[in-house]
Amino acid sequence: MGKNVIGFILALLVQRQTRFNYVNRAIIFLPITISPLVLAIIFLSIYNPTNGLLNAFLDVLHLGNLKQDWLFDPRFSLTSISIMEIWQQTGFSMAIFIAGLQSIPKDFYDAANIDGATTIQQIRYITVPLIIQSINVTLMLSIISGIKVFAQVYGTTNGGPADQTQVLSTFLYKSFGNGYLGYSSAVGLFTTLLIMLLTFGIVGYLRTKEIEL
Fold it and tell me: pTM for the complete prediction?
């Protein structure tokens, strides 16, 4: 959900077709082109408790008391990996939202301005209802990528500490590697059914909210 909310906000900020916004879009979209395993290696260095960039930055800000072992402290490990996933996927959500925003006729906003609608009101009553299809797509893809996430966890914590970051994909991988073939097959089937149930449920619900232009 975080990647969709941030992606939508960024899309609103860079939707206008200017050279400056083209550069911003490219920068925001760039992380999605990085291999998840390479991304895990990059964030391993960022989160390193001894000489990582994050703790070094906190030192520069004289906030050394906030330094943590971000990946191997059970209080922060899952959140740290989630931030990594959000950072990589937000640009993709933004691109989908921009496509939806640019399909909205400008006449709707002109009429709203004449009626005195605020920016927030225009987003709530015009933008969001008219990009339900884009919201539908981003939610569906986010659910699939979230449930299937593997390399980011495997490349950083491998499910630790104390299984705090264990996800279905790493659990399946470990079960298969330990020779529990039937068990791992059951996990794979459960993952597939879970993705189908969630995506079809959300897609079916949001389709009832779509508005034809």
Answer: 0.87
